[in-house]
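stuck on this:

***
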Amino acid sequence: MNAAQRLEAVFAGELIDCVPFALKGWRIPQCEAERALRNQGMCVFDARAVYQVHNPNVQTETLHFTRDGVGYQRTTIKTPKGELNTLHRQVGADQVERTTWQLEWPFKGPEDYAALRAMVSDRRYAPSYEGFLKAREQLGGDAYFKTIAPGCPLHDIMYSFMGLESFSVEWEERRDEVLALHQIMSENLRPLWEIVAASPAQVVQSGGNYAPSVLGRERFIEYVLPHWEEAAAPLRRRGKMLGSHLDADNQLWAAEVRAAPLDWIEAFSPAPDTDMSVAQARAAWPGKVLFLNFPSAVHLESSQAIAAATRQLLREAAPGDRFIVGITENVPEDRWRVSFAAILNTLNECGRLPIRAEAL
């Protein structure tokens, strides 16, 4: 059974030989250590798009530049109602640590609402399945592929358009403008769900990174849950699985997630990183595939401590169906060889299914 077949079987609810260990994307360099891990069973859970976005009336210009040895990206978006500008900075040089930080948001003040409305209402979606099919064929079972779809529009407004400080001001002083923008974005997305549902992707991730300390339960119920409901309807008609990237504290809305039309949870980060253990998540969300992120702080511990933490995850996940131990966040370059080997060896030794918690 290759990596793709193993992950596919877990998402289908099958009880395979042992709990898989999977990286979200190719998070480590191709090298002897990486090959050894994959030969011992480490899987890759990769992603490819299944649609293209066209903006017939909007122009985008991107400038890449370096300042003091740091890479930046300046983006200018020209709409019929004005220009918007963003600035991002590249952080980290190593493959396992590379990411970007947003330094400047397109929304600078109330005068930018018209340009934002023009930008999002101009988006047009078209199927683009060839890249997904080609990647799946070329890798020949070395990776299992999901596809990614947009998350809740209000969350995009908070994090991608405004930033938290500006959003807080606008939510208090011009909420009607924020909600009008949210409504336009929601309506614009509706044709996209049919495109994703008709795609060759079986597993779909719709956004995520929802933090209760910022979003709050009320906004989660009012805006995130309806977004999932709308996305799930066409996907389920085609037998596809809908999930979301829930890597923050989830206790506040655990009951709502249980009732939501989510088939799987990506990047669930168990205690001590968040406020829920694997045991609590399994009890709260029966029947949902749990693709967790191995607790980040534990990567810094000894091999023995990492193995012990892995065994504890297995105890709490028993009998182990619909369960994947994953890596969804960056791991320090000097730790992944030790940490990943300890996790994988423990899963291969102790993660045989069905798991008997009393035997661990």
Notes: The first strand starts at residue 21 and ends at 24. The mean pLDDT is 95. The chain has two domains: 3-54+123-359, 56-106. The radius of gyration is 21 Å.
